[in-house]
Task: structure prediction
Amino acid sequence: MTGARVGSSLTDEQEAIRELVREFAAEEVRPGAGAADETETFPEDVWDGLAELGLTGLTVPEEYGGFDADATTYAVVNEELAHGHLAVATALSVHCLATSCLAEFGSEAQRERWLPEMAADGRPVGMFCLSEPHAGSNPAEMSTTAEYDPETDEYVLNGEKQWITNGRRGGVAIVFAKAVRPGGEANGGDAGGDDAGAITQFLVPADTDGFAVGKKEEKLGLRASDTTAVSFDDCRIPAENRLTEEGRGLSAAFRTLTGGRIGIAAQAVGVAQAALDEAKTYATEREQFGEPIAAIQTIRHKLAEMATDVAGARLLVREACRQAEAGEDNRVAASQAKLRASETAMSVTNEAVQIHGGYGYTTDFDVERLYRDAKITEIYEGTSEIQKTIIARGVLGSQ
Result:
């Protein structure tokens, strides 16, 4: 068991994929992570490598040239990539959100048009545009609109989205907006006409007139990740680019995000595991008082607690995957996994910095970057507070 990463058993195929991605992360991702973080530049050569491995088609059905991964495989890939560099794993997971939306909600023509390229070449890179400057945890409050123009059979989008991963790199966006009738009245469809019920899902190519990308955000961590705002100014798209019926977009977003949260939870496990590995190596090499600090009971207990927390978080991720693959309602399990894994990422990276002492506070050691990166796992794709709300609803039977 020495050096093993504890978790539920994998099939032979899943184990082979894990080893493939683990090797790629160790040889191609991790070595450049520090420089990419320092320069705040996404490593496009790594993205090309992901495409060569078929990972940019991870959630694309096989008939469109994709991998069609099950939930466990998806989680394993996210964990191993995040062990190398969270920014790379985040970019891939958002790309996969976009391909998942196209695969599930797109027409046959849309799937044939976009999915083979997104799977084979990893381009166009996918974006997922849900959050807005004043509508983050409650997307029902979004103000972006899509007014239908019957004369041209087009929708005209106006509004702004915030915190968009792959913002400058992206080539196609999955955009959520409130469908309105000519004149601005919300069209709620089957939802009864209220604003939240008007939310609809659209496919918007990034080269569409009226689609603009804002400045790249300067962030605490995840610095190599391309995070921007995007805006729509009389952005016209054909009606055939609507992915859901009017008013069905919010439920589609929540369904997609449940799978996405499993990926984020797995990424948090990967970050925590990387910090644990760094701390273990440092503790066995660093000497104080004439012996490695790993011989000091306080340090040994820290490592024991860190390893136990990582293993527990990984098992919660695997349980959420099991439920998904069994066709069960895994909303609570996905939220439990994301909540516990993200908290574990924060606590384990904090302890890893502590074990490194003053060196852990410098950029000479990876634990400093891992500590900064870990924080975002408690925020994106649903804050910890939102996850607790979902879990509490499940506990109380009021989902």
The chain has a mean pLDDT of 94. The beta strands are 125-129, 145-149, 154-165, 170-180, 199-205, 211-216, 227-238, 287-288, 291-292.
